[in-house]
Amino acid sequence: MKPEWRAADRGAELLAAARGWLAAGLIDETTFGSIAAEGPTTGPRLGRTWRILVFACVVIGVSTSTAVAFLSFGLHEATEVGCTLLLAGLALAAVTEVVIDRCSFQPTGAEAATSLLATGYLCAGAFALLDNLHLSWPETLRLACPWCAAVFALAAWRWGFRLYGGAAAIFVLLLAAQFPGARLAWIATASLLAAWATAAARGGGLAPSRRGSLELVRIVSLAAIYAAVNYSSVDKGLIEEIGRAVGAPHHRAGRISLLLAGAGSALYPLGLLARGLRSRDRALIDLGIVAAGLSLATASVYLHLGPLWLVLAASGGVLAGTSLLLERWLRSGRDGERFGFTALPLGDEERKKILLPVASALATTPEAPNPSAGPPGIAGTGGTFGGGGADGTF
Amino acid sequence: MNHTLLDAVGRLRARGTLTDDQAAFFGRMARDELVSVHPELQVALWIGVTMIAGGAGLLVKENLARLGPATIGAGIGLAAALCIWYVVRSAPPFSWGPVASPSLAFDYVLLLGVLLIGTDLAYLETRFKLLGPSWPWHLLLLSLLQTAFAFRYDSRAVLSLALASFAAWRGVALSFPDGAMVGPREQEIRVNALLVGALFLAAGALARRAGRKAHFEPTFGNLGLLLLLGAAVAGSYGGRGSLESAWLVALAAIAGAAIALAYRARRSDYFAQGVVAAYLGFLRVATELDLHVGRFYLVAAGSLGVLILILWAHRRFKEEP
Q: What ipTM does this complex have?
């Protein structure tokens, strides 16, 4: 990452934070203007809608051009395809460098598209070349995973796209699952990755996007540990399935493994939550809540806690009720905070607030009637009644 | 700890951009000594409300025979009434302008109440066949009720629901899998979608012009344009293999008008919808041409053309600093 990119990255983070402070009413327009003026000079900025449009256009245009090249030159052999993809990937990586370096307005969406295509082509090229060796799928994965992990890690480090950090971690974990004792290797690798990412992210000189990449590596690794200790995952041997050769017997978990998985499903989310609350680490808190929800869902499947409607309504009631109580409790604290937590928006959360209810409204949109048919029934039709959001599909 | 932010706060304080209090406050945020769980509480509330509504729906479906219609109808009605009672009790006074929610829970309780009313109405209609063969009219009734709630309590989420119910009354589902305007009654549904879309756009324009809930205009406008363009795109692609030129012309006209008007009005969301629809129309034409490899050249050139259009046009639109 070039020094000027790092400076722009830091400026963008400060501007985003200032925008949040403005939205939350913590600063006024004048202060915001001063903060914006003090940052590194940047050109005009493309809004999110535009970036998505540019991204889509570049992805479609470049993919189609690649297809044109394959058809025009009659490339069919795995070696030809692999080499072409590798060359195209390198060319796109060079284009990404140019766009980031030279484009007068940042971000454009084009650099995200070209970098995604570059990493995708470089990984696909490796798979195509390995296809020539007629290896089994686990053997192919053993060779391809380190390459893909390196490509994504390099892309994250060079260009600062956070998602690539997470993708690199996933490929490292997939590699760990290829060896005997897959689950233990998976947990050990994930633990090492999480510890390394946590320690590395503490470094003061990191650019925000690199810190974000490391944060995503940490989240992916901690989520991977949960995936390995979840009861359902152990019961079904999901981790072992990744590296299972075709025709090899399915992994069967022993009683002790299942017992440990039961304990892990219950204790790991609590551990994440406790650690997150103690260190005021939002990522850990969020991960703990999601993991706890998944553990409850697993428990409801295996322990048959009651009819689904009751489980849904009761869990929903508890979740909504707890949230409300928590909000009241936090608001009633001194200056609206307790133990370093507050329910007040400190960023631009209020601007995003409308998205959730609207998404909910559209998700529960009513089913359109067929006027030629009679009124839809309830029982036995798999959910064909509904209106005004009372979705019949349940 | 966010070192970048911490350094920047110190620098801004030294230059006098931030006051001591502000710098101390933002410094606490950067050091993770003060953390907002506002987004987490919102998401938890949203999931909770959705789960309760889903549970109520399942209750009706699974226990119809066992509990009896009166118990189910009254139970859901009571739950809806409780939600609406809370909303009425805590709602701020009515205003034609934007009204801030009095609490985090307000929007979600209102949404839950409206969803439960919808469940109850649909249940009663299905069970007692109050409207007989004209049963889809209960969707109009529901839509009007939801519109009233949306205006009174200033909820764009409930307005979205109202518009979805209205579209459903005319046979158009806004949810993607059910909203396919390709099928045995596609022509009728597409025409209905065009009319409903035009009506929503007109309502949005009226709201903005009259200054009555003018902030609802994007909800009306985006859903309206989505229906108009969706119907035209579906018409262009839904000709059972053959290209229906009338729909393609309609798509070109609607997308062109949307792009031109959005460009003039500096509305990037409408402009983007117009561009995407026009691009889909272009792809439809490209698939129709017998060009073999040339088709790929055409698509690549088209993508480049759209890219140039976007980069040329974006400067007119106001961007965030």
A: 0.72
